[in-house]
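Write out this protein's structure.
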Amino acid sequence: MTVLLVATASPVAAGAATGSPGAATAGDRLIPTLGNGGYDARDYDVSFDYEPGTTTMRSSVEMTASATQNLSSFSLDSVGQRIGSVTVNGAPAAFRLDPGHEKLLVTPSRTLHRGREFRVRIDYTVDRGVNPAPAYYGLPPDEPSPFVYWAKNDAGFALFGQPDRAHLFVPSNDTPGDKARFTFRVTVPEDRQVAANGTLRSVTTRAGAKSYVYGTAEEIPTNVVQVAVGHFTTLRQTGPHGLPIVSQVPVSMGDYHVPEAVTQRYGITDANIISRVTEAAQRTPEQVRWLEDALGLPFPFEKYGVLGITSLYNNVALETPTLSTFGAPFLALPPEAESPTMVHELVHQYFGDAVSPAMWDDMWLNEGHAVYYERLYSSDQGYANLLDALRQDYGNDQGVRDSDGPPAHLRNAGGILLGTDVPGALALFALHETVGQQTFERIERDFYLTYRGRSATTADYIATANRVSGQDLTPMLTAWLYGAETPPMPGHPDWTTTS
């Protein structure tokens, strides 16, 4: 059902340019309703007012975008929000919600001209108690998602928006191919703190409340935005080339208690968990140094750090740019268990955040790189043998393909989060074994430097590999990225799959 909330558009002035509606999709094969056409988002200025004791937050966003056609109307991705008002370039605009497609449809009072910037301001209310599942999960309409997108944190919350739930927090063009800068303005009681992507620009106190302003210097994908409210201790360190390392760890674990089985296996207790989380965060500078050396590339953003929250965070970690997010109980694990995953999310700052997938079919560019360099790090640190780990991955590869499809052409959107990790890493290793270490390093650097700050496709990576190597690697990479069967691993004829 389509709900009409406002219809106050003014008539188009005589002689004004005619326009047409922007597409209500970015054309993503795996999530066809996701994203929008007709404009390129440049900046989002987002405000949240957090109050204890209620799950609702008064919110607003101002999106600055550039029209890529003459626009008579356009859409943004939006779900689970109560929209109060919409203006375009300061003038009231007509709008309506299309819940079935998770769209906010906007008709400005005047046609927006191709090539010109425009501003959309949306005042809305979000409810952190609302947790709608994407349609591709196939759940009944009233059944919440198995993932918690407004993740629990002691005295607050943290966001989990991958792959397509950022528009639960902010009406936006929620496709990884349209990156933008973000500013977050968050007002909280003065006994709480805020962490977010980017650099803390200001903190002001007024009438018992604090207002934090964070902003990113670089454009980032919507699916990895992060805002968290809670009780945090700030750890400040310095990485290579003077890079600021600013991490946020919990002051306490709130009502979280360490399970007895975890205590027996790892020695983690309620009394020592915070100190162990802090020790893990303090390993971040050396991890950044290791990865810069491995890639031969400086860190891509203005700062970095880790964020630990007091829940399990859906039993995952997320590469939120400039501040990777982890459940604090995970960070408390021994280094051989948690450090490789910390490096995994660090790799994503390059592949996934600085270079983003154009569509979700390109997710292997994120996860394949993260798993590959995670394996290298584990080997360098003596936690595991590289070839043994990759051989085990190879044994599992066919099972992943049978379940989710090949990494660059997944069977459905359900495989986006987990279905490309092992096959993507093995594709990179197969390339490495085919062209050798030096050429592989040149391909990686050239691909990153060419597409940094932009989005890239699988075809872009294959073209880069061909150009840099001087070889036609298309058949080999196509077999690894699009094949239903696990190809033989170059140089390792004895490796076998288990299915």
